[in-house]
Amino acid sequence: MSSDIPTDRRYLESHEWVLTDADPARIGISDFAQEELGDVVYVELPEVGDSIEAGTVFGAVESIKAVSDLYAPISGTVFAVNDRLVDEPELVNESPYGKGWLIEIEGVDEVELEELLSAEEYREQAQ
């Protein structure tokens, strides 16, 4: 896999990541996922205040190729939604680990984080 995989976050096998160096935690999709999707044209996200549960669908990403569900890597309450994606869904392609983040959630359970893949484990399974 040639995709960049930052080591400062944890991953789901379904290619979502969570950055937990601050509260709230930030969630997005990996570079590998955005490459597989192709050009993103629409992102469906939950509302601020919604509760999401680890392993369940919290939204969807629509590209010119397909619509893909987004799975929550951890449980919590939606603190913020990346509103820029409404008008600029291509940010998911251009900056999947930066400006293309999806949501921020608070109330994160540390035990759930430990169950996620490290960058190295994710790199191995994504090949």
Keywords:
globular, single chain, OB fold (Dihydrolipoamide Acetyltransferase, E2P), 9 strands, 127 residues, alpha+beta
Quickly give the structural class. Answer: alpha+beta
Q: Counting H and I runs of at least 4 residues, what is the number of helices?
A: 5
Strands, count: 9
Helix content: 10-25%
Element-level helix/strand string = EEEHEEEEEHHEHH
Task: Show the helix and strand layout.
Layout: E1 10-11, E2 16-19, E3 25-29, H1 31-37, E4 40-44, E5 51-52, E6 57-63, E7 67-71, E8 76-81, H2 84-87, H3 91-94, E9 103-106, H4 110-114, H5 119-125
Give an overview in words.
It is a single chain. The protein has helices at residues 31-37, 84-87, 91-94, 110-114, 119-125; strands at 10-11, 16-19, 25-29, 40-44, 51-52, 57-63, 67-71, 76-81, 103-106. The chain has 127 residues and is an alpha+beta fold. The protein is globular. The model has no long low-confidence stretch (mean pLDDT 94).
